[in-house]
Amino acid sequence: MPRSYADAVDKLNGLQTNFAVLEAVRKSGGSANKNSLSEVVEFVQRSGYNPEDFDELNLIHVTGTKGKGSTCALTESILRNYNCKKQIKTGLYTSPHLMEVRERIRINGTPISQDLFAKYFFEVWDRLDSTGDKSKPGYFRFLTVLAFHVFKQEKVDVAILEVGVGGAYDSTNIIHKPIVCAVAALGIDHVSVLGSTLGEIAWNKGGIFKQDVPAVSSEQVEEGLTVLQSRAQELGATLQVVPAFTNEGLGDVTIGLAGKHQVANAALASAICRIWIEKVFGEKITAANGVVPKEFVKGLASARWPGRGQIMIRNDKPKITWFFDGAHTAESICVCADWFKDASHKDIQGAVKKVLMFNCTGPRDGDTLLGPLAKIQTNVHFDQAVFTPAITFASNTYKGDLVNNNAPMDLELKTQKTLAACWVKQVGLASGSESEGQEDVRTTVLPSIEHSVNWIDDYVKNEIEHGADHVQVLVTGSLHLVGGVQSVLGCEIA
Questions:
Q1: 14-24 pLDDT, tens per residue?
Q2: How far is CA 366 from each of CA 226, 310, 362, 371, 384, rounded to the nearest angstrom?
Q3: Where among 240, 270, 302 does a domain terminate?
Q4: Which of 146, 179, 191, 390 shows its CA 20 to 30 Å from the CA of 5?
Q5: CATH number, residue 484
């Protein structure tokens, strides 16, 4: 039986998709959620563990709508760079991946190798088969079971788990006794599964709280915070609200992740690490409230999180600057727009053209996600907007990691054409009139990410020949889009 990394990815892709799981929950009115954790526990047990076995991983559990991945990355970097007698060996489980699925499971900040992924993947696969029951968990659930197996086998000192969707019924929530739980900023997302109000979503996110386990949260709007406090009381947790770092609190510390919003994520990560270090090592971090502890400076400064607020200039094509941010919610796209507005004006010399490259999960999200970008149009002026589906390569020469079974095929590009029309409308609305200035709004719809990158290369060449000095490209709306672009560009896994 083949046992390569590609074989493992092919088997993984054959499992039920996240989309199918969420759709089943939506159609059931939420009742399908009730059995989800017991099903995951059964798979964990068939793989040779009990949930209690994971307590020794000194778990950190993080949920939220936006910023939870960044908070996990900052937390991992702080602990890995913490100066103690023995370097802390970190495990990090996040989703989704950009270019290769192994990015989701990291040891000491680095994605596990293809060989190691294949080794552990087939160990779990074989353990499940050996029970006589050939059934397998869905895509995300299998990866969750695999992550626990990897962290146990690699004997990490801490395992940081990012919740996939929600919290209460997420497959990561089978754990019994984490060291600390955390909630990053709340917002509206996955409404068919989590609820349509902030309160309903907060109830689900707060479901990761545990009896006698400290919980921390970023500052939230009152509706969300009230529900989180109620959930903490209900589940027996103590909840602490962590304000964002101020300029005074940061001092001369530069956070390694770009964007003004990272001051809140950095503060939350610092609170997580203070609690973890005190509970695991018995060491108390002494720093004034709201001030970055000196022990955390290196970790905050060296943190990296690909595809989020990332700027890249390729040596072979220095006339293009790529801005990557996989923002896919209303709140995160506002943060992205604010970031790009500032970042795209730094160190500019000469004539600069700007291109927006965009995709999202469906046309119904177009107005919501494109609106904040249209509002900065008068400031940044996108000369072109390119819309493409989450199909990476134009031919069949693709990697299994980039197969996106959650996105239905749309050969007629109806979604992208609708998004292009949304962009034209939103730019008009932002200018004060749906018709004003629309003749200057240029859109292009292309059938794949590879087509789009090639189109941009030709566009840059033409603009440089006609007097432009540089072209900036903002890629946003979907982490799948960001990962696809970086794959076409030949970026290294980070």
A1: 996 655 555 65
A2: 31, 23, 7, 8, 17
A3: 302
A4: 390
A5: 3.90.190.20
